[in-house]
């Protein structure tokens, strides 16, 4: 329902069809993320490390004959933790491309630039963005990231996925987004009452006033392009380290040095 692109944004969409295709792709990305991190009797989580709310849980899925997902073994990893920071501050931090290098290990320290921005709600945080990561290593090709952020009175999310440059160019020109392979990761943010947890984090202006937040971090990573391959312990350890490092970076960036154990 968006009919405007904010003034000052770098726009690479040249047609209404391209805008519609990008929004359809973002909608599928959000649905894919929710399906990928949702448990069921057929897809159950295994606790990998930690305990209680700080536990890292993993789940594997096989992707076969699905044009919207890369083929192979997909490892999902997720954890939830509490922060003495208001939800809005966390949401604004995670969705801002300028602060992405503070938590996103996969961007590898590259400069992140917003290429285009489509508003899809009244709140300025409700939007679909296409980001470009200009790698510090000139021998590496530039990475594109599709991101959707949304916030309302019930909660917020920031969901993103790396996208192929060639496929994204077709989408921006109005092409069919259904055949763009996506493996989305992201964050869910919920308000969690007044600060009464006493977990070692100290942000004076937040404590006793704005309460805290429950932040869920979830990654989906292709660990093997062969669907019949066996999951290696090395792959599991790598993803576990990735999610723990990301959590620690977010805590540090928001002024909380209580590391995930």
UniProtKB/TrEMBL annotation:
This protein's record includes keyword Nucleotide-binding: no
What Pfam families does the record point to?
Answer: PDF2_C
Q: For the HD-Zip IV C-terminal domain, which residue ranges apply?
A: 15-256
**What keywords is this UniProt entry annotated with?**
DNA-binding, Homeobox
**UniProt xrefs under InterPro entries:** HD-Zip_IV (IPR042160), HD-Zip_IV_C (IPR057993)
* Molecular function terms from GO: DNA binding
- Spell out the coiled coil positions from the record: none
Protein name as it appears in the record: Homeodomain transcription factor
